[in-house]
Design goal:
The chain is α/β, with parallel strands linked by helices. It has 2 domains: about 5-25 and about 35-125 and about 230-335, 3-Layer(aba) Sandwich (D-Maltodextrin-Binding Protein, domain 2), CATH 3.40.190; about 130-225, D-Maltodextrin-Binding Protein, domain 2 (3-Layer(aba) Sandwich). The protein is about 40% helix and about 15% strand. The protein has helices spanning about 5-20, 60-65, 70-75, 90-95, 105-110, 155-170, 185-190, 200-210, 240-245, 245-265, 265-275, 280-295, 310-320, 330-335, and strands at about 45-50, 75-80, 100, 115-120, 130-135, 150, 175-180, 195-200, 215-220, 235. Strands 2-1-3-10-4 form a 5-stranded mixed sheet, sandwiched between helices. Helix 6 links the parallel strand 6 and strand 7 (about 175-180). The longest helix is centred in the C-terminal third of the chain and has 20 residues, at about 245-265. It is globular and about 60 Å long. InterPro entries: NMT1/THI5, SsuA/THI5. One of its GO terms (biological process) is thiamine biosynthetic process. It comes from Paenibacillus uliginis N3/975.
């Protein structure tokens, strides 16, 4: 999965979010009260979860919770849907979807524009994205970007991140040739006209391993603590939290159990994802799941835990680089209140 395609979605989302901020009265009504885990199927409450991108191992816990009946135990009939062109944020903020998969950078931008999105769990504790290049391009550190061709989408955030880490190596981002990748995937693009791109290793990096195409990987978190942000995250709206907190608790109890299953039983969890989304490459799903499962919780006391220092650090980084119009009130952008003490 090429990281930059997500930034293109973010550009689209940003335009939509400005409109969504005034759409609070259009949200669908919520049923009141907690869900009864013993309800018959006919009485299960319909809940829609919108993904951020095509289904992949970032989402395994959701599919596990659905397949293993954890949502039904909480009285929920959960439908997992693919995002439209505008991504999940706008639909969650407007109440058209109950929950969604997003990213800290997207929620940060939304919050500073008055859009009431709230992150309720970090899917992965540490940023697994970075700049990847075939080994024959000899890109071993950020300074080696100079004179090379980068495939992206022209987002100001891409260049800001690249500039930030290149400065650590006393290098100049203006010496990088920026190329729009269009619809090409990473493997096509590096054979055609680029030297490196921003990817998530858990998917594209693992696919490279299966293809036996060796990569040099420069993780952005290794250059800056501020860039070790949460990506992806689960989100809902402030309205949902305020008006139906019991639904959020029920959803998170089941979801946490799903991710705990994926952590402890990666092979079985991979099989569940492949069953739910049969068009995915089963070998890639299995290899990716084995790599990613230990990283969901990592060094956190429980899956999903978020720190205010992480939210503030990345938002301050964005503001200093003029990627935000104003500072973020970090404490209001996320909550750990709906995470169960144990799955």
């Amino acid at each position: 999965m090429v990281r930059n395609k997500r930034w293109m979605s973010l550009v689209i989302i940003c335009a939509v979010l400005l409109v969504v901020a005034g759409c609070g009265n259009k949200e669908k009504p919520n049923n009141e009260g907690a869900s009864d885990s013993n309800k018959p199927a006919a009485e299960l409450r319909d809940v829609q979860v919108m993904l951020d991108w095509s289904a992949n191992t970032n989402h395994t816990g959701l599919y596990a919770a659905k397949d293993l009946g954890y949502y039904e135990e909480e009285g929920l009939n959960v439908k997992i849907v693919q995002p439209g062109a505008g991504g999940s944020d706008a639909l969650v903020a407007s109440g058209k979807a109950d929950f969604g998969v997003s990213y800290q950078e997207s929620v940060t931008l939304a919050r500073t524009q008055g859009v009431p999105l709230v992150s309720i769990a970090a899917v992965i504790q540490h940023n697994t994205s970075g700049f990847a290049a075939p080994v024959d391009r000899n890109i071993k550190k950020a300074a080696d970007f100079e004179g090379k061709s980068y495939g992206g989408w022209g987002s100001p955030v891409e260049e800001a991140v690249m500039k930030s880490i290149m400065e650590k190596d006393n290098a100049d981002v203006s010496k990088v040739k920026m190329i729009n990748m269009g619809d090409a995937d990473y493997f096509t693009a590096v054979k055609r006209d680029i030297d490196f791109a921003w990817i998530f290793y858990a998917w594209t990096g693992i696919e490279a391993e299966l293809r036996e195409e060796k990569l040099d990987m420069i993780y952005v978190k290794d250059y800056s603590e501020a860039l070790d942000y949460y990506t992806p995250v689960l989100v809902t709206s402030e309205k949902m939290i305020n008006e139906d907190p019991e639904l959020v608790k029920a959803f998170m109890r089941a979801t946490a159990k799903g991710y705990d299953y994926a952590i402890k039983q990666p092979e079985e969890a991979a099989a569940l994802l492949s069953k739910a989304v049969p068009e995915l490459d089963k070998d890639l799903v299995l290899a990716s799941q084995k790599w990613l499962s230990p990283l969901y919780q990592d060094d956190a006391p429980r899956w999903g835990e978020q720190k205010e220092s992480v939210w503030k650090g990345y938002a301050d980084w964005m503001f200093e680089r003029k990627l935000l119009d104003k500072p973020l009130e970090a404490g209001s952008a996320f909550t750990n209140d709906f995470l169960p003490d144990s799955p």
